[in-house]
Amino acid sequence: MKKTKEFKRRSMLYIPGNNPAMLQQGGVYGADSLLLDLEDAVALNQKDAARTLVANMLQHNKYYDAELSVRVNHIDTPFGLADLEEIVPLQPHTIRFPKCETIEQLDKVLSIVEEIENKHNLPHNEMGIHAMIETALGVMNVYDIAGHSSRVDAITIGGQDLTSDMKVAAGKDGIGIDYARKRIVMAAKAHRIDVMDTVFADVDDDEGLRKETEYIKKIGFTGKAVINPRQIDIVHEVYIPSEKDVAKAMRIYQAYLKNKAAGIGVFAVDKKMVDKPVVERAMTTLSLADIDLNSIEY
Amino acid sequence: MKNSLGKEIPESIEGLGKLIPYTGAWGLQDRLDEVKLVPVPAKARKPHYDKTCANLEEAIKKSQPFNGMCVSFHHHLRGGDQLIIQAMEIFKKLGIKDICIASSSLTTAHDCLVPFVLDGTITKIFSSGIRGELGRTVSEGALPNPIVIHSHGGRARAIKEGRIKIDIAILAAAAADNEGNATGQHGPSAFGSMGYGMIDAQYAKNTIIVTDNMVEFPCVPASVPAHYVDFVTEIETIGDAKKIAGGTTRITKAPLDLKIAKMAADAIIATDYFKNGISFQVGAGGASLAVAKYIRKAMIEKEVQGSFLLGGVTSVCTDMLEEGLFKSIFDVQGFDAAVSSSLLNNPKHIEISSDQYASPMNSGAMTNKIDVVALGALEVDTDFNVNVITSSTGDIMGASGGHSDTAAGANLSIVVAPSFRGRLPIIVDKVMTVVTPGESVDLVVTERGICVNPLRKDLEKQLKEAGLWVRDIKELAKEVEEIVGKPAHVATTDKIIGVVEYRDGSIIDVIRQPKK
Hints:
A: alpha/beta; B: alpha/beta; six-stranded mixed sheet
């Protein structure tokens, strides 16, 4: 099994935890990450059934190479503890903790998770935690949340709940959550962890999704949550670097390897200065293009 | 006797005569010397003979119907056809019984024929496919003779061989003149190409053109020319062209079908066939039709210009012609009414007959020239054999269409299908009925990976080099079985209710009546 930080997280497909057909087929669509949802997608009277179904699917269904994440209910709801008790022993790649507002809440979740892991003789360093920021308070505390535990390897923004909490319209222009997006991205970057954007709700508006994905990529998001498998390819297309960008990144990285061997730190490619940040950007581009850096020769 | 796929085939069947066992996709080459073609019927009408009839009944009476005769139709109006039922009601009124229906296909629009089967008006059916209530009725053994399933190309061959001997062809036309020049390309019921009716018009003892749009002489274009036509009549309606495009002819929005289509397109792009000059066909059906959508995008991005599209034409195809992505379309059948205007107005959109489209018995049908075809399936087995005709309950509910024709001819034949539907496995150890032999299927693309026919090591290498998800079909069948289990074997009686003729006239399989 891959370690949680080894996954690309360009796309994360939401799958309602009470939908057997979608749970069964979720692994075939090519999303980098799958979110089996016990929280908002599941009606109150189906919480128990969804929990059992998701637990069974985690054990028996094939999800191929996708990262598996389970969104549990908030620990302060009647369902949160039961969710953790059922799911943590199965050690999906990550648990997603919704409406995370403070490090105290996060501590509470972490201690419950570790208690369950102890009970089942499981290590504390395999399964990751994703903290979901969905309230104004969460946005204001996001820097602390993002850096609070080494188990938190990604944070995400929940646009629907956040606009509701802020009492602003959930418009396609995203103006209402623009500050939150940028603050959350900066917190993630400061702690060198991944950051996922919220869903784009209009599944028939491909161009709208493309534009929004281009925007959130530019401001630094690692990837985007999707609610329909048809949205996955569009998100990936935005994140896959162009052939021109890949070629340029390859030239930079090859020049870096050559100069490194010669003990030179700063050099020029295409008449432009290349230093460490430029090399790091080139490495990110090559990784997004699925090119193994170890296979590159100069 | 057993054919080369190990299927048990009777030596002969009453009403059909001696059967030839399937020996391979190109078995016809070995027995070509034994094949005898029939001449077109001798006809000689006196000058200024008036072909027009006041109504369909008069046209039928003048064609001298008799008990036991064979009447042919085309199915270009698909789900909107209203001609067959009108003709059958007249035959019944005239007391004609024991009729053989030779329709290029039958759809759910023909459920209305059930009473005619039950009362003995219809006792034999030749068709590419059969669905709905009519399919169920035939599957229950209501016909005294087994239905014979032909491919589109196989039907053209069977007519030329005289194995389908048409006494009266009753052909719907969207426009016609008083001499019988007829077309499907314009008029209120325009349905596009008349490709399946062309050979009927030529070989029938009597050809009746039926239109709801009589136009001034000459009707242009003359898809069926007047010199093949004996009678012409105008009726209120031949059908509803809006119903041509059914569920199988629209591009799907279903994520799973789109995923499969994208994987198929990726596979095509990864092969050597994706280059300037490519020729291409997609079948009807959700995923296969959607392949065209992704191929179009890739052709634009990679600046590839194709040679021709073949089919089975939808507005996706005509859009690609207009965009210059392909240089021409060869059109045997329109899958939606919207393509009619392209056929009428674009000289590079060319109407062809089923003979020119797909017959194995001529000097080279268009299917012999095609590079890539994407087709659907009801079941595929681990030998790559494909069933497109019988359901999981053993009932006849599909259509052979051009499946085996295009698979045999294409350089790259791809079957696209989900690995299972609901609780039914689609990738199985053995298909219930073989329509297209595995030897002519190169790739099976499912949402759980791409299976390459072991005969095509070249493709396997190209797909793997492109990083595509290539899987062993036996391993996939096992995985599918683990997910949905193994359905109980469909028990059948010994009664043969259907005969699946391979395109060359040999028998690739028979369908036995399911036990209820």
